[in-house]
Amino acid sequence: MKNNIMEQKVGVGIIGSQFISSIHVESLKQVPEAVIVAVMSPTPGNAKQFAETHNIPKYFTQLEDMLALEEVHMVVVGAPNYLHCDITLKAAKAGKHIVVEKPLCLNMAEADQMIAACKEAEVKLMYAEELCFTPKYVRLKGLLDSGSLGDPIIFKQSEKHDGPHSDHFWDVERSGGGVTMDMGCHAIQFFRWLNANNPVVSVYAHMSTTVHRHRTKGDDNAILILEFENGVTAIAEESWTKLGGMDDRAEIHGSEGVAYADVLQGNSIQTYSNKGIGYAVEKAGNTIGWSFVMYEELWNYGFPQEMAHFVDCVRYDKQPLVTGEDGKMVLQIIQAAYESAGTGKKIKLPFNTTIDRPYKLWKPQN
């Protein structure tokens, strides 16, 4: 899309009708410069029901039909991982700007195709990493950038709950891997953003499948250690086995100070429920029992701010904070992590492989 649309709202098409697409819609409703035009889902009845629930005027079961709408300027891809590449190629060809949920895709070949197609079509490829917009984490980065913490030494980030909400996450052929693909990608981009995209030079990882062996061949627990060129060490802890709802926190240790940020605790309502909590992000884990209920939950996670930024990039032809190239680099680091977990060795970057699914580097196929 080469024309400037500064004088009009950005028309958005939603691709997907499940958990993450609901978050996208609720977030976009808080962006005055955007208007949700249509939703598309191939599953019969899903798009219609989603459109009725969210008051979206048009719905489709065929992607090409939605992409044919001139009033759609940007699409937001909330489909399973294995569909990201094909959807992006078709959307780019149709001249639509594209927001892709994490992870960007399944492998480096797909990432290269997606980036090349968007460059050729002169559309923006934006990578949806909400941790770069999460208010507590934005403040954490501000403390680091101001010099209040001195030189960065160690970063830590953990995200834990009791497992994915949709079946495709459990299927490694559709998802590409386990918790590292699902949530480790958050930590990796978060670390790169904190560290001004300083290059990652090595990755060491340990992964296991401890609780969900009956549901997945993927990892349900992972610890990743990233070394940056400037000497910073970053440690990610990711789990699908933590009971009691979502846990999301980060730390920065510097030469002159330390800072801790917990997304859910400190501005939440500690709650016990026998039925479970129906809040959007809390659906990522089972909330029966104790959990932390957020006010302005989506805002606290940064989703509306993320969508407002991407809409602004489309309106005013700005460079996105998180791009397709960032998504590709995250994927390369994820692949290196699976290779490290499979070999027990530290993996130097850049790491090149032609494997089609990252989990195969950890559990080679017979």
Describe the protein in words.
The protein has twelve helices and 15 strands. The N and C termini lie far apart (46 Å). The strands form three sheets. A seven-stranded mixed beta sheet has the order 12-11-7-10-9-8-15. A six-stranded parallel beta sheet has the order 3-2-1-4-5-6, sandwiched between helices. The chain has a two-stranded antiparallel ribbon with strand order 13-14. Helix content is 33%, strand content 24%.
Features of this protein?
globular, Dihydrodipicolinate Reductase, domain 2, Rossmann fold, 7-stranded mixed β-sheet
Helix content: 25-40%
Largest sheet: 7 strands, mixed
Figure out the total of helices.
12
Strand line-up of the largest beta sheet: 12-11-7-10-9-8-15
Classify the secondary structure makeup into a structural class: alpha/beta
Give the CATH level 1 class of the largest domain.
Alpha Beta
Q: Termini separation (Å)?
A: 46 Å
Structural Rg: 20 Å
State mean pLDDT (0 to 100 scale).
93
Number of strands: 15
* Element order: H for helix, E for strand: EHEHEHEHEHEHEHHHEEEEEEEHHHE
Question: Which parts are unreliable, with pLDDT below 50 for 5 consecutive residues or more?
Answer: 279-283
Residues in β-strands, percent:
15-25%
Q: How many structural domains are formed by the residues?
A: 2
The second-level CATH architecture of the largest domain is 2-Layer Sandwich
Q: What's the CATH H-level superfamily name of the largest domain?
A: Dihydrodipicolinate Reductase, domain 2
Shape: globular
